[in-house]
Amino acid sequence: MGKTIIRRFIIMIPQLFVLSILVFFLAKFMPGDPFTGLITPQTDPARLEELSEKAGLNDPWPIQYVRWIGNALHGEFGISYTFKRDVGDLIGERALNTFWLSLLSVTLLYAIAIPLGILAGRYQNSRLDKTIILYSFITYAIPTFVLALLFLFLFGYKLEWFPTSGSVDIEYSSGTLQYYWSKFHHILLPAITYAILGTTGIIQFLRSEIIDAKGMDYVRTARSKGIPIKKVYTKHIFRNSLLPIAAFLGFTITGLLGGSIFIETIFGFPGMGQLFVSSIASRDYSVITALVMLYGFLTLLGSLLSDIIMSIVDPRIRIE
Amino acid sequence: MKITRWMLLATIIFTLFILTAFSKSEKRIETAAPSSNSPFAMAVTNEGKPIDGGVLRVAMVKDEPFQGIFSWELYEDGYDADLMSWASNSLFETDENFMITNEGIASLYVDQKNNKVTVTIREGVKWSDGQPLKIEDVILPYHIIGHKDYPGVRYNSEFQNIIGAKEYHEGKAKTISGIRKVDDFTIEISFKQLSPSIFYGGDGLWTYAAPSHQIGNIPVDQLLQSDAVRKNPVTLGAFKVEKIVPGESVQYVKNEHYWKGEPKLDGVLVKVVPSSSVSVAIGTGKYDIIQHFNATKMPEIEGYDNITILGRPELFYSYLGFKVGKYDYQKNTVVTDLDGSKMGDVNLRKAMAYALDIEQVSEVLYNGLRVRANSLIPPVFESFYDKSLKGYVYDPEKAKEILDKAGYKDVDGDGFREDPKGKKLEIKLASMSGDSVQEEITAYYLQNWRDVGLNVTLSTGRLIEFNSFYDMVKADHPEIDVFMGAWGTGTNPSPSGLYGASDQYNFSRYTSDLLEKTIQNIDSPSAFDKYYRANQFKIFQKHIEEVATTVPMQFRYEIYPINKRVKNYSIDYKNPTELHEIELMAKEPFKSKKKK
């Protein structure tokens, strides 16, 4: 397996190379440039020209590409045109915010979805099952921004249980206990919102897997051996039913850095989703290209991780 | 799976609940028409006894994190300027005409004959860290902006008006030769040519100081990354930056060294608040002052009893531009070609302007926070604005009459007018996407034109994203005959830069001898006589109205909801609130008792 993993990593190089070409040239094909947004009656067109000359934006695209890829290989993605900061620092700051938010979201997501899925499958067609299904249909049907706004109004503004925007209270200084509590407090409501909205898939998968498994031979065998029904569910059925969920785990882990534009916008949370969308709008080339390369790499890594996890969880599967 | 009846019912009830919860925030169509003068108060005084100190809570409505460049020389985004204004480094104060007075930290003496300016700073002014303000702090910004590594937009043709700025920028000189230190409190700046703009901080004059003891030794290309700009800027204003959470919030505390006296507040906290929830935040009393409140959300906050809504005209106009020529980027000149352009006929342009029901759009879709504009000079500039201009008030009958007279008739009976030669006339309109109601507005205008028999369609078939829009307009794209744009004028309303014969931003590509002469007169030495200048402004406005190549569409109000906890606050340009005098009357902002 070690060999396979190394080989997969080597294959990533040409894949990322192709991605880099696509991203770079598509970004350049967009109309306008980072300086278009600076036009006011007071700005001097000659100065904008000078700035874009200095930034190398007037060179032929292949030359710009070679320069960019050369820097990127050294880990330098340049300076953000909008924020005027090192792209690595900028993304790092946002990625950290998004990472903690996503980690809490995903944890809550599984904490809600797995028990519900198991219960629904185990007590199929009972009132409980129907309630769970109703719940999952409703959460599936509600658009993200609707639920996010509703929760924000209700729990943030009316009941005042949660802070209403930002990622941390400015009063606390970094490193103190209150500071970390404040950070946690700020991500809790967005995370709950996100978790509730995302449960449907997992609940449905688990439920149908469990219903399928109930009729399997190995379950009948276990029951006939006299194993208590509770144990059959926790030991036999549960492990088997988790397979399809485990298949996505790799993507889930690397997807932690994706961020959600809706959640971030409504909760005023500076994260990756917003950075990506706003960098496209402002033609912040250095940020766009760095982010797409990062997401591309994470997706490849996610699929590799998923394969590895599958082979661990289900020994029948081998990656060759 | 069988869906039982109660499940269906529960779903319906839940959906209804969601719908009703949100229908409140729907736009209301029937809003009262505004009176012709400003419908808003510009200042408020609340009765009550002020508390000692307190922290003013300010919401800045914005859906993305702010950039956080705390340097007047380097910032680009208006939001950063608003953040900096609490801890301003401004040297000068201005009067109701935005002209520099001698009330501020520095005073200005203009020697018009010799094209020289003397700037004198007060003695005893201190930076927020207790260091005295030196004349070097006034000189430093010029050497930052003029530097060859300077990354911003402020090194421009105006700045090159300072003698020696260009040589310094090109590395031929160590300093800017036109700037001379006279004594420890005075500098003298020599310019190539002075104009009345000097009194508005134009012509290359820089109106801010920079703390040379803090940033003097930082290389210019590293300033943007430095803590002095990002984390702990040293400032001159009433408050000083205590802490910044990047992109989210800024905490200020009072600056005990403030030259006008110690502020009454303990501090100010500014937070970015998403536009989706700002109305609720206002009602639940989270903030005292709300900046950048979006006009389309006005109905959501009108019922609250814990706030006063202040409003003032903005330095802004939107316009309808007609392409009547091209820009020659080789020769840097506007080439007007009236005969060769589809929009070359003044009658057609006038008819199109009369046909637009801008009044209705302003009232219904902008809740009266925009009004029909009659001039390219916003009315705030009282001495230059010509209020006698009629503008193109909505009059579809007149539009039809003009078109009939000029020979635009429907020859082939398809419901649309043909041009005087009988050829089909299809006019392409470029409209920018962005504003949430832009789609409705554009559709309505197209209908307006259809009503008078003109076949106007959208360039590219849909609204155009901001970057592409300006790319296409700049390049005189053949798909664009008419376009809708807007300008923020800044405090100097001079039309040079936007309507001159060599201006790239003269997007309609119209120029004439009279127009060019007038624009030059406005900024000429004779315009130091303010009556002469005002008169030239009127000639400019009248000429543009007559040729109708750029038709003013709307002026805009900006509004500031102010919580009743704030003792007194004013956004009047004539008499703005002194930041160090703001007082609060309770520990927390008031909540609204009324449900709307």
From TrEMBL, chain A:
PROSITE patterns: ABC_TM1 (PS50928). It is a multi-pass membrane protein. InterPro entries: BPD_transp_1_N, MetI-like, MetI-like_sf. The chain crosses the membrane at residues 9-27, 99-120, 132-157, 187-206, 242-267, 287-313. It is found in: Cell membrane. It comes from the Bacteria. It holds the Pfam family BPD_transp_1. Its main location: membrane. One of its GO terms (cellular component) is plasma membrane. Keywords: Cell membrane, Membrane, Transmembrane, Transmembrane helix, Transport. One of its GO terms (biological process) is transmembrane transport. Residues 95-306 form the ABC transmembrane type-1 domain. CDD domains: TM_PBP2 (cd06261). Belongs to the binding-protein-dependent transport system permease family. This is ABC transporter permease. It comes from Ureibacillus endophyticus. The lineage of its organism: Bacteria, Bacillati, Bacillota, Bacilli, Bacillales.
UniProtKB/TrEMBL annotation, chain B:
One of its GO terms (cellular component) is periplasmic space. Keywords: Signal, Transport. One of its GO terms (biological process) is peptide transport. Coiled coil: none annotated. Residues 109-505 form the Solute-binding protein family domain. Belongs to the bacterial solute-binding protein 5 family. This is Oligopeptide ABC transporter substrate-binding protein. It comes from Ureibacillus endophyticus.
